[in-house]
Design a protein that fits this description.
about 210 residues, alpha/beta, Helicase, Ruva Protein, domain 3, Dna Topoisomerase Vi A Subunit, Chain: A, domain 2, 2 domains, 5-stranded mixed beta sheet, two-stranded antiparallel sheet, 8 helices, binds zinc ion
Length: about 210
């Protein structure tokens, strides 16, 4: 290794980031070292602060610096309707589309690969059973993994102590395979307004 150990360590850490290979890591490391205190130290401080202060909300699992998060703590929001999303970026997109209920962030989806791994649905089940919830809206992506996740949640509700809870899914206004986080607010607002009941045995649809 031609680099000093501290540099090699930085490269190893950068390479662990998603989408960063050895060449990108090297480019980033040189950039940070050359900009010295101007860029590298504020970045280090920001990383330290985010790790120290940002935690998942104990109610909805969204990232927050308070518990419960600002959305869960907001008394003006409709707590009877929970919009379930795969990741915090989806929540941000649906927030821009004007959703006024609350959320549940899965931080994952049913994996389409051979592992078929699942996000932990237990916190969602507890929430549905313990609180005064009237509707669960499934805001998972309209792709293979999002479909699998929506099915798993519908099944979870059917086996819960609230089997008659209304479960709906965003309308198919978005192209199949698209991602919620990249959809524009108007399209998402329409998909929310025209959400469809997830049928119990293919039951009737009521998008109310
Ligand atoms: Zn929350």
């Amino acid at each position: 290794m031609a680099y000093p150990e501290a540099m090699a360590r930085l490269l190893r850490e950068l390479e662990k980031l998603p989408g960063v290979g050895p060449r990108t890591a090297e480019r980033l490391a040189h950039f940070l070292i050359q900009s010295g205190t101007e860029r590298a130290l504020p970045l280090a401080a920001a990383l330290e602060a985010v790790v120290a202060s940002v935690r998942p909300c104990s109610v909805c699992r969204h990232l927050a610096d308070a518990d419960p998060c600002a959305i869960c703590a907001d008394a003006t929001r409709d707590r009877s309707r929970i919009l379930v999303v795969e990741q915090p970026r989806d929540l941000e997109a649906l927030e821009r589309a004007g959703w006024r209920g609350v959320y549940h962030v899965l931080n994952g989806s049913v994996r389409a690969d051979a592992t078929g791994s699942m996000p932990d649905l237990e916190p969602l089940r507890r929430r549905v059973e313990q609180h005064d919830v009237t509707e669960l809206v499934l805001g998972t992506d309209p792709d293979f993994e999002g479909d699998g996740t929506a099915l798993a949640i519908a099944e979870l509700v059917r086996r819960s102590r609230r089997p008659d809870l209304k479960v709906s899914r965003l309308a198919r206004g978005m192209p199949t395979g698209s991602a919620i986080e990249y959809s524009n607010p108007a399209v998402l607002a329409e998909a929310l307004a025209e959400r469809r009941a997830v049928g119990r045995g293919g039951g009737a649809e009521d998008g109310a």
